Automatic annotation (TrEMBL):
It comes from Desulfocapsa sulfexigens (strain DSM 10523 / SB164P1). This is Wadjet protein JetD C-terminal domain-containing protein. It comes from the Bacteria. Residues 213-386 form the Wadjet protein JetD C-terminal domain. Residues 8-190 form the DUF3322 domain. It holds the Pfam family JetD_C.
Length: 392
């Protein structure tokens, strides 16, 4: 049928408006969808005569849909030189909202949406703007709304409860439900709670608890005491909340920091020293540990662009921090073990010393190999011992 408007085309056009939320949003605003006239792409000029069989099938398809009450065909009477006087379809007219919704098979869903809106707005009229903007999301959570509303009612009455989510006592709402629905809950809570009840700087699902005043799982620091004489009641490998580590103030001279967990576990004994490990990109949790300012800090990261980014970050908290096993000697001694960094950075780093900056620029400019990377765990243990012996 060439590019003539088929029933499938009409349905796709209206389905697209449904998927964009336009039909339900208009319905909630009380705007009538109908009457709705849609002009047809139709045979023109000599196409009626030259493609009569195809054109007639096109007309028959429209008439068949009209007989089922989908719409009314608007026709234009044309006196054709070859075919004589005929009425040819030029548009279709949907007379009721229900006719459009039935045509695309969404009448039942629209009625469910109506019921949900009545239910939601009865308790929270301030959610009208959200329902207009996110009608399909509202439908997506159709079965969850009773529990979503229960959570909203509780937190509106008990903002910033200061307990763990696990401690909430809301009938038929368990911890897992809240964990799975943090995204919609966040959108809704932001609309029903006053601004002073929301920690605006805490964004994203991982900071849900902080944003709405729940207790969060404490951020931890893992460290090993490398001097047996300093073990705490016989304990050498500890995992403690940052707040407790902050108050610990260990009497050590050296603090090693490494990303890799096995490096931290295998690190040899060192007099008056500890090693902090497993932080990954979480170096910021050390930022406020004041007693570290008076220690000799040695950072051991990968020799790649992000390794130096983290060294630069650590120096923003502890300017005295030095790099460990991140020099040219280490890099060249392990050439056979070089790998490739997946997403190198070209960030400008201002806290590296001259030698570190030289290696970083080598990496950024790919002067030795494209996206060169030497992972810290590839450095031989005997080499670690040799360099460590020179250091302490």
């Amino acid at each position: 049928m060439s590019n003539w408007s088929s029933i499938k085309d009409l349905r796709k056009k209206l389905e697209r408006e449904w998927e964009q939320g336009k039909l339900l949003s208009a319905r909630l605003r009380g705007e009538d969808l109908c009457p709705r006239r849609i002009t047809l792409k139709r045979p023109l000029g000599n196409e009626w005569a030259e493609k009569w069989d195809t054109a007639k099938a096109w007309v028959d398809e429209l008439i068949e849909a009209e007989t089922h009450g989908a719409f009314t065909i608007e026709s234009q009477e044309v006196n054709h030189r070859q075919l004589g006087r005929n009425s040819f379809p030029q548009a279709v007219l949907f007379k009721t909202d229900e006719s459009i919704l039935s045509f695309i098979g969404k009448l039942s869903a629209a009625r469910i949406f109506d019921e949900l809106c009545c239910q939601i707005l009865a308790d929270f009229p301030e959610l009208r703007s959200w329902l207009e903007k996110r009608p399909l999301v509202a439908l997506q959570y159709q079965k969850q709304w009773p529990r979503l509303l229960a959570v909203l009612k509780y937190l509106k009455s008990n903002p910033r409860p200061g307990i763990y989510v696990r401690q909430l006592e809301i009938p038929e709402v368990d911890t897992k439900f809240i964990e799975k629905h943090k995204k919609p809950l966040s959108e809704l809570l932001d609309l029903i709670l006053s601004k002073e009840m929301i920690e605006s700087s805490a964004t994203g699902a991982k900071r849900f608890e902080e944003r709405y005043g729940f207790l969060s799982k404490p951020v931890q620091v893992r460290f090993r005491i490398l001097d047996p004489d300093l073990y705490l009641h016989g304990l050498s490998d500890l995992h403690v909340p940052v707040s407790e580590f902050c108050a610990l103030n260990l009497e050590v001279d050296h603090v090693f920091i490494t990303e890799n967990e096995i490096n931290g576990l295998a690190f040899p004994n060192v007099k008056n020293a500890i090693i902090i490990f497993g932080l990954g990109f979480g170096l910021d949790r050390l930022a406020n540990i004041q007693w570290l300012l008076g220690k000799k800090i040695h950072y051991w990261g990968d020799i790649d662009t992000h390794g130096y980014v983290m060294l630069d970050q650590l120096r923003s908290y502890f300017p005295q921090a030095s790099s460990f096993l991140m020099d040219r000697e280490t890099l060249m001694a392990h050439e056979s073990l070089w790998g490739q960094e997946s997403k190198p950075t070209r960030r400008s780093l201002t806290r590296l010393d001259e030698k570190e900056l030289g290696i970083y620029e080598f990496l950024v400019k790919n002067l030795l190999r494209d996206a060169l990377r030497l992972e810290q765990e590839r450095i031989s243990y005997s080499f670690v011992l040799k360099i460590l012996k020179k250091l302490v």
